[in-house]
Design brief:
Layout: E1 10-11, E2 24-26, E3 28-29, E4 32-38, E5 41-43, H1 47-53, E6 61-67, E7 70-75, H2 78-85, E8 95-97, H3 109-126, E9 139-140, E10 147-148, E11 155-156, E12 161-170, E13 173-179, E14 190-193, H4 200-212, E15 216-227, E16 232-241, E17 254-261, H5 275-284
Parallel strand pairs: 2-7, 12-16
Antiparallel strand pairs: 1-6, 3-4, 4-5, 4-8, 6-7, 9-10, 10-11, 12-13, 12-14, 13-17, 15-16
The structure holds zinc ion (ZN).
């Protein structure tokens, strides 16, 4: 999966650091990361590349996390970068704003994990510039990853939205779905965000009942995955069908809901970095009975 980067290790221990030339710098505009074209390949720009390009915004570089010896920094926000350096990001030669989905296929893949983490934190910083309680300008804490209001003391922490992915088994068959009206058109598993006041197990039962009208038993936790594309943390479960296998599709959410024999489950390599894919393949190859 995208976050599986062994033997390298990921660290998000809070620290205040100054970038070194080889560190990676993430800048986002309209949800798109700014990438650098190097030898005909798009890469995450290093601080050595960023330094001469945005000399008036370097004080904004915020340390986010590290992988091995490489630190990742965020320079937010893109409007201020453009004003301070008198430029438009789209017009920079050798740079390009790309879809966030580029992080799914970037080489090396740990740049993708760092990039998606940077996106998650970028979204939080971008939407917490002002205090939600009194409206004053927030300031970053010097002790932890939080934003603090200097006037009323309100402290806000990064938002993580818990969500579940459910692989529903029926003997040798697995329930696969396709979303309705989404850019993502491949087969997937039932998924949904946790609502306030429920456990992740209750979310599993509720989502499956809402989306396909099925009852479950033998709920088994599998693995989790940080998914910064949607500011979420995914909890993967397997469960057995309990009772009738007739599917009642929620057509606003899903276009397809279909039982697949183990051997007929499609191998979707383009999506190999997700927990959904991992769970589908673990059932297909017999790892999960
Ligand atoms: Zn306040």
């Amino acid at each position: 999966m995208l976050h599986d980067i062994a033997p390298l290790t990921f660290s998000n221990v809070f620290a205040i650091k100054t970038p070194k030339d080889t560190d990676l710098v993430f800048i986002f505009k309209n949800g798109q990361p700014l990438l650098y074209r190097q030898c005909d390949q798009l890469v995450v720009p290093t601080y050595a590349v960023i330094q001469p390009q945005f000399p008036h915004s370097l004080h904004r570089a915020t340390y986010l996390c590290s992988v091995g010896d490489t630190d990742g920094f965020l320079i937010a926000d893109s409007e201020e970068i453009e004003t301070e350096n008198n430029l438009v990001l789209e017009d920079l030669p050798a740079f390009s704003l790309e879809s966030i989905r580029f992080f799914r296929t970037i080489v090396p893949s740990w740049h993708g994990h760092m990039g998606v983490t940077a996106n998650h934190l970028h979204m939080w910083y971008k939407t917490n510039r002002f205090c939600g309680a009194c409206g004053s300008k927030m300031e970053p804490s010097t002790k932890e990853r939080s934003m603090v209001c200097p006037d009323c003391g309100f402290t806000d922490y990064p938002k993580i939205c818990p969500a579940v992915i459910v692989a529903v088994k029926n003997g040798n068959r697995l329930l696969l779905t396709k979303y309705a009206n989404r850019a993502f058109t491949r087969y997937a598993l039932i998924a949904g965000f946790c609502e306030i006041g429920e456990t992740v197990e209750q979310t599993v039962h509720r989502e499956v009942m809402e989306e396909v009208g099925l009852k479950l038993k033998n709920l088994t936790y599998y693995k989790s995955q940080p998914w910064g594309f949607s500011e979420s943390l995914l909890f993967g479960f397997y469960a057995d069908l309990d009772g009738d296998s007739a599917i009642t599709l929620d057509q606003e959410e899903l276009e397809v809901g279909q039982w697949f024999e183990r051997e007929d489950i499609p191998a979707d390599t383009e999506n190999a970095l997700s927990l959904t894919y991992t769970m589908m393949q673990a059932f297909k190859n017999g790892e999960i009975q």
